[in-house]
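Justification of computing resources. Each target in the renewal requires a structure prediction run like the one illustrated here; the chain below, 93 residues long, is used simply to show the kind of job we budget for.
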Amino acid sequence: MNRAMIDGFLKANVPARKPMERWIRIAQSGIWSDIVDMRKSIPSADAIKGTNFTCFNIGGNSYRLIVAISYRRQEMAIVELLTHAQYSKKYVR
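Resulting structure tokens:
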């Protein structure tokens, strides 16, 4: 997901803007060895069953941020930013 897509989502979903900015600040400053370690800083981090992705609740229970994480390289890539309803249709089985 590129920056333009994220900006478009946040423009259409204004309430997600501040929580997303907060997540970015935390993610940029974090150094984690695994998801258990990450949950100390971001308690909503949750592995998505059957994928290599991690899901974060953004704005409480309203939005879902899907991220691919390499703990070894300390790199993250945003895959998707979805409303809760969009996430449920795509990932909840």
